[in-house]
Write a structure and sequence with these properties.
84% of the residues lie in helices and 0% in strands. The protein is built from twelve helices and no strands. The protein has helices spanning 3-39, 42-62, 70-105, 109-140, 143-154, 157-163, 166-189, 195-218, 230-257, 259-262, 266-286, 294-303. It is globular and about 80 Å long.
């Protein structure tokens, strides 16, 4: 066998690896999307979103500027966003249901009533998100998507796999993460730092960790052994930073709705939003990714009053 033939066979094998991995994700995405539209099950919504994110990750590795996959990438991105709206509402509602249950068990009726009002409000928002998902996802996952997908597999996939190396992409993501981590630490070192900027930097660091996690997970078949533990490593980092972000989002959601809209008393409102702020600070101190000095925590707390 000639060197040329060996090279060709090696590339064919590489393309087949990518094709098999992506087809599996595509089938999962289509199946979970179909099930999600039946009854909007939490797990179906979650899995459809996860598989769309993994497909987006692999497409970004192969075609970072989306010059050859623009329509396909855009379709998965739209689906992911719509699924994300429903998923985020599900998570908030389920979390606040659990909080309400605990408040009732503790005899804290005012907090329980506040949480009931928030849950009711978010259920109405979720209805809107589900309605958009029902029409939008059905349209996005129709015959046109199958056409785009088939054309991608038969067309640019082989050329893209020949040009791109997932290991190089992973290393670039590692460097970007460390740079963002360094910038984040600098912001959190200064007690007088603008907490909004610091929290935004922390949010960006979480997104960077998520990119590394999903790259390690979805492209594991194409990565060197040294990267095989990265999924678990960055999942842990993402989850630590995610706890902080989730609580910040919940507080922002409450404030965007407003006390008057929910029809709750000022005392109950202040007590609950204050407890959420305390939880944010606790999560900040417990995270092991970016150490947070006590002086900054006090400044951050004051800035969210």
């Amino acid at each position: 066998m000639t060197v040329e033939q060996l090279t060709k066979d090696k590339q064919t094998s590489k393309t087949r690896q990518w094709e098999q991995a992506m087809i599996k994700l595509y089938v999962n995405f289509r199946d979970y999307s179909k099930d999600a539209l039946k009854d909007f099950g939490d797990e179906d919504i979650h899995q459809a979103r996860v598989n769309s994110r993994k497909l987006l990750t692999l497409l970004s590795i192969l075609d970072p500027d989306h010059s050859s996959t623009a329509e396909l990438y855009s379709t998965f991105k739209q689906a992911q966003k719509m699924l994300g709206k429903v998923r985020d509402a599900d998570v908030l509602i389920n979390s606040f249901k659990e909080r309400r249950k605990l408040a009732k068990e503790d005899g804290d009726n005012k907090t329980a009533e506040l949480l009931k009002a928030v849950i009711k409000h978010q259920k109405e928002k979720r209805k809107e998100y589900r309605k958009k998902l029902e029409s939008g996802l059905a349209q996005l996952t129709g015959k046109e998507l199958d056409r785009l997908w088939t054309a991608f597999l038969a067309g640019p996939l082989e050329a893209l796999t020949a040009k791109r190396d997932a290991n190089v992409v992973m290393r670039e993501l590692e460097v970007a993460f460390e740079q963002k981590k360094k910038a984040c630490k600098m912001l959190f070192k200064e007690p007088e730092a603008e907490s909004k900027a610091a929290f935004e930097a922390l949010h960006e660091l979480r997104i960077s960790a998520k990119e590394l996690r999903y790259t390690a997970s979805s492209a594991g078949f194409a990565l060197n052994q040294k990267f095989h533990a990265h999924e678990e490593i960055y999942k842990n980092i993402q989850e630590q930073l995610g706890v902080i972000n989730d609580k910040r989002v919940w507080l922002d959601t409450l404030q965007s709705i407003g006390r008057d809209e929910l029809g709750v008393g000022k005392k109950a409102w202040s007590a609950f939003t204050g407890s959420l702020r305390e939880e944010i600070l606790e999560a900040l101190h417990q995270n092991e990714v970016v150490p947070v000095p006590a002086a900054f925590a006090k400044a951050a707390y004051s800035s969210t009053e």
